Amino acid sequence: MLDTAEPNHAGEPPRRRKGIYLLPNLVTLAALFGGFYAIVMAMNGRYDLATSGIFAAMVLDSLDGRIARLTHTQSAFGEQMDSLSDMVSFGAAPALVAYEWALRDLGRWGWIAAFVYCACAALRLARFNVNTHVVDKRYFQGLPSPAAAALVAGFIWLATDAGRTGDGLQWALFALTLYAGLTMVTNVPFYSFKDLSLKRSVPFAALVAIALGIAVINIHPPTVLFALFVLYGLSGYVMYGVRKAKGKPVSVLSTSTDEPDERGLHE
Fold this sequence. Notes:
Four Helix Bundle (Hemerythrin (Met), subunit A); CDP-diaglyc--ser_O-PTrfase; two-stranded antiparallel ribbon; 4 strands; 267 residues; mainly alpha; phospholipid biosynthesis
């Protein structure tokens, strides 16, 4: 980031010109390109490449924030840039790819499903931005947009890899698109994995489990990845039901009232 002192003739301390941190924003731009690439490939009928673009954007989206924290380059600009990139890569791109692949055949029902998904992604991202400081960091409030995009893109990737189109897949994708979209705007808690630290030591068995996981994914990536995201997409409702049955609170609003701006939120 360029940060140069600017002289001040009024005797005040020199003001600094604010620039933009390069590294994390480059990663965010790369994630944005993944979403844009997915849309362009869908327009050209290359749905295998379109879904690959969305999954690549997911990987890059998981890195930009971590890179910013590790290099101490967090900024308000970066946060806003990340949200706009997510809207394209995990909101507009999956909706348009799904519409081009199969929802178009359903007429108005198809574009309604695509729009509902896109609108819910925008609402979910807006709610996430304003609730950042009051939501329990261990959970997401509603299905995160990258996971919702993975459900839609994973289904298309799996069907494309199997060479299947039609045969009722339009309505299956219609239902899945609505499910993913509406689940984003629910209050159902989904585990965020944010309490896992890469700096902590882990047992040797954990590394073996990771190696086995990579091996299992490589058996058939479309099937395994889609199955994993389906399980994750259902896990929030299972957690909600278990907590409800045990009489435990199901809200993901932080239960601590130590911070002044949280007082009154949990009454």
